[in-house]
């Protein structure tokens, strides 16, 4: 009887050890850690941004989130967050954001090309401008030629970390070589238009529509 | 304590203009960095683009007034 009990305890110990061993080899996902340097280039931190959005940080409910592409397209599209992130080739690039307020940040952005999204929607030839609508009502526009010729990203990660709500989760436009007001956060809709005179939120308040970094951001 | 109202008018203009400019400089600075609050407090009068324009345009008058202020003080010191 004692021998049976010892054998039972021994078997139980082996089984428990095996089970815990299995647990130790399974993979648990940990939170991402911000990348501080990329290919020898020192990066700014996610926390180096100043909050200057028109209505404060937006907290988008990702379960109900849809990215709509409409306007002058043959196939209007509507994607969930997962469809945008998982079904498109991802790219990464270090790009500096220069704000009109005088500060700047160099960040490793990861996302998809806006032109890949637009290609799926089949943009009509008469479309000249992409108007980006945000969750907080902010809008801005960029010429289609600029988007197509410069591989403009729509980012979902910065410095290796998923965009925090304060930085534009789920998507922020990486409008390189443009002033910061073209880097729209919380993108929800992309409208294709032929209205080359369309002016977004700050542009309709006197900021330059081209927003080129080598020019003054105020319209002369 | 010296009564600044008894100073000559030119000095007074410089002093008060410099003070007003300092206040305006700080206010428009906040009108850029904390524009939502400033727009609310000024009932929408001081918008961010307007704050930018005023802040930028003030730089030359500000430097001129500081120069005049320093000049007046040096002149006063040498007279005493």
What does this structure look like?
- The complex is a heterodimer of chains A (220) and B (80).
- Chain A has four helices and twelve strands; from the N terminus they run H-E-E-E-E-H-E-E-H-E-E-H-E-E-E-E.
- With 220 residues, chain A is α+β, with helices and mostly antiparallel strands.
- Chain A has a single domain, classed as Oxidoreductase, molybdopterin-binding domain (Sulfite Oxidase, Chain A, domain 2, Alpha-Beta Complex).
- In chain A, strand 5 and strand 6 (104-113) form a beta hairpin.
- The longest helix of chain A is centred in the first third of the chain and has 24 residues, at 2-25.
- The termini of chain A are far apart.
- With 80 residues, chain B is mainly alpha-helical.
- Chain B has one domain (10-79).
- Chain B is 79% helix and 0% strand.
- Chain B is built from four helices and no strands.
- The longest helix of chain B is centred in the N-terminal third of the chain and has 25 residues, at 9-33.
- The chains are: A alpha+beta (220), B mainly alpha (80).
